[in-house]
Design brief:
84% helix, membrane, transmembrane, 99 residues, transmembrane helix, single chain, mainly alpha
């Protein structure tokens, strides 16, 4: 039972981080460093959330709270990445294209 729970914690922490990194890759920022930076930040978020949730799973009622926090955090990261790509796209189309 414990290994199944650890697998669930791993997947619940890893899949959103993988989705954000994939979304950043699909947006095709003009700089390669944006993808590498987002991937590194998402990997750190994954490690922190996974570590906290594994320790919290030993205490009854304490598990799951960091996953809720990480879902909201990664939603805001997703919105921020998308908005920043739109800003870069608008700058490329309207301001840089006319120079």
């Amino acid at each position: 039972m414990a290994s199944s729970h650890n697998r669930d914690i791993f997947l619940a922490s890893f899949i959103p981080s993988l989705f954000i990194a994939g979304w950043t890759w699909l947006l095709h920022f003009p700089w390669d460093s944006v993808f590498y930076t987002v991937a590194a930040i998402e990997f750190l978020i994954f490690l922190i959330i996974w570590g906290f949730e594994r320790q919290a799973s030993d205490v009854k009622g304490a598990s799951g709270w960091m996953l809720f926090f990480s879902i909201f955090l990664q939603f805001f990261i997703l919105v921020g990445i998308t908005v920043s790509r739109l800003i870069v796209l608008i700058a490329q189309l309207f301001f840089i294209g006319f120079l």
